């Protein structure tokens, strides 16, 4: 039995990039609510872009250790389908967020060694899926979206964790290999489809989605 991977284009902050992701057939579109990121958007922009999606993809709100008040503001503006927790949120915090807002959670886990992958099992039954990303270097301003890849071989044990997404340093040229070697349920890309930090390239988005679609999972 085969299935196609889920494709998520993240860090969308302007109308043209979002339209490119939707036109290419992305399954999920991600919006960043984290001021340290060049892809950060506020409530007003989130409301505008959210309307543009119009049910053509699942909307994902990415936050980093956000308070309930901030999450409530984001939910009110974007009306997301999922909440992506990209900080140090514990399983208990993730469960509390899911219960408070009635939305599924996508939990990001930074990976540098096998212990990080093994630790993801603590979110079983809490997160709809795990998103494995390259762990940011010490002192980095952002926990993700840094264009870094990690050793995909570490994910050999991840198939027992739950559905998982792969992120970190992916591009049009590497996404097919990444899917084939990891068996990930989906892929997430941000900087890999940008012409400069925070500026999405429509052609790169189209190529990325097409390459992922060709990599049918076994």
Provide key terms for this protein.
eight-stranded parallel barrel; TIM Barrel; globular; 10 strands; two-stranded antiparallel ribbon; 218 residues; alpha/beta
The largest β sheet comes out as:
8 strands, parallel, barrel
Q: Regions with pLDDT < 50 over 5+ consecutive residues?
A: none
The class by helix and strand makeup works out as alpha/beta
Quickly count the domains.
1
CATH topology call: TIM Barrel
Topology readout:
Elements: E1 6-9, H1 15-24, E2 28-33, H2 43-53, E3 58-63, H3 68-78, E4 82-85, H4 91-101, E5 105-111, H5 114-119, E6 129-134, E7 164-166, H6 175-182, E8 186-189, E9 194-196, E10 199-200, H7 202-214
What does this 3D model show about the protein?
The chain has about 220 residues and is an alpha/beta fold. It has a single domain (about 5-215), classed as TIM Barrel (Alpha-Beta Barrel). The protein is built from seven helices and ten strands. Strands 1-2-3-4-5-6-7-8 form an eight-stranded parallel β-barrel, surrounded by six helices. The relative contact order is 0.18. The model has no long low-confidence stretch (mean pLDDT about 90).
Please give a quick description of this structure.
With 218 residues, this protein is α/β, with parallel strands linked by helices. Helix content is 32%, strand content 21%.
